[in-house]
User: What shape does this take?
Amino acid sequence: MACSVQSLKCFWEPYRGIIRFCVILVVCHFFWKFTVIGDESSDMVTFFGCDISAPFIWMSTHLTTAVYAIINFFGGYVSIIANDILGFPNGNSVHIVWACSGIKQAYIFTCIILFSRGAWKHKTWFIPLGIVVCFLINVIRITILVAVIEHSFEAFNVLHEYILKYVFYGIIFLMWVLWEEKIAVKSSKQTLQSQKG
Assistant: This one.
């Protein structure tokens, strides 16, 4: 079917994947925002009123241990004050709250790939791989933030609110691009070839 200039379908076709990505991202964000409820000063997290705190507490504690090991390995000095609080000798400290666990970003990545085109057999390995990447990126992000807070609360706020958060989502976008351009396309071609054969 030839595309005409007036055809909205032809106009939007090149942007279909990006639009789908943005819609899934926004829907998942607002679904999380209105259903996963918790105060950052508390460890209590609920989903439709049910207590789901355990994975967030576990991840925050795990992140604290990982960041502690990385900073001390590279010659810094930080100590674990509590399960999810790191402190420096100068008195500065940081509390790794449940919202910084990276679980939200892993959930959003999972939903984006689940609702994207492509073979399920590839999604079964790409989603776990992407979740591991999300975890590693979050460890790096939290390590940078903790290292910065030793000397500068102002830089911490800028990095946390305006830079590293969007870098994290940018990496999720790049993983989706890898899926769309390399894996989903390849699996679609293989499906077509098997149907012809």
Summary: Residues 17-36+50-191 form one domain. DSSP finds six helices and six strands in the chain.
